[in-house]
Amino acid sequence: MTEKIHVSHLPPTFTSEDINQLMEIFGKVENIEMIIDPILHKFNGESFVEFSNELEIQKAATGGMGLTIGSYVLETKKVPISQSATSVAITALMQNAVNTLASNPSTAGNLIGINNNLKSILEGNPSRIIKLNHIVTIEELHDHTYYEDLFEDTNEQCANYGNVVSIQIPKPNTHGENL
Q1: Which of 16, 46, 86, 156 has the most CB atoms less than 10 A away?
Q2: DSSP labels for 90-139?
Q3: What is the mean pLDDT of residues 77-85?
C-alpha cells in the first residue's frame, strides 16, 4: 500500500479506540497513529489511519470529509504511507517557533525549550533519510561524468550501512543554481 488517510479536526478527547470505531465504517483499520502535540504531550485532533486495501482508503477519504462529530467537522485526505505523526509534530513545533519569533522577537530565549522538545522527538524516532551537505561544489556537478561517479560512490558507501532505497542529488541549472 502506498497511501493512508490523514484525519484532522477530531475531538481532542478521542482515543485510538474512538478513532478505530469511527473509521471502521469505511473498512478494516490496520493501524492508527495519533499525532501528539510535542509541547503539551496531548492528542492534537489529528491522526493517520491505515486500511487493509486501496478501496477502503478511497472510501475513508471521501466518506470522512465533512463528517460531523459534535461541533467538530472532520477533514480527510490521502497521504503517502511514509508520512508520520513525528513529521507532523516536528512541523508544528517549528511553525510554532517561527510564529513566536515573528510576533515577538524578544522571545528567542524560549526556543531553548522548543529545541529540547525537538531533540527528544528526534532521538525517539530515528529517520530513514540521510542528508549529506557540502560534499561537492556546484561546479563539480556540471560535469556529467563526475555527477554519475558521485551517484555511484554515494550509493556504494551508503549501502555499507543498510539498504539504499533512493538517492537524490540536486542538479544545478545552467546558471549554477540548484533546481
Answers
A1: 46
A2: HHHHHHHHHHHHHH-GGGGGGHHHHHHHHHHHHHHS--S-----SSS-HH
A3: 82
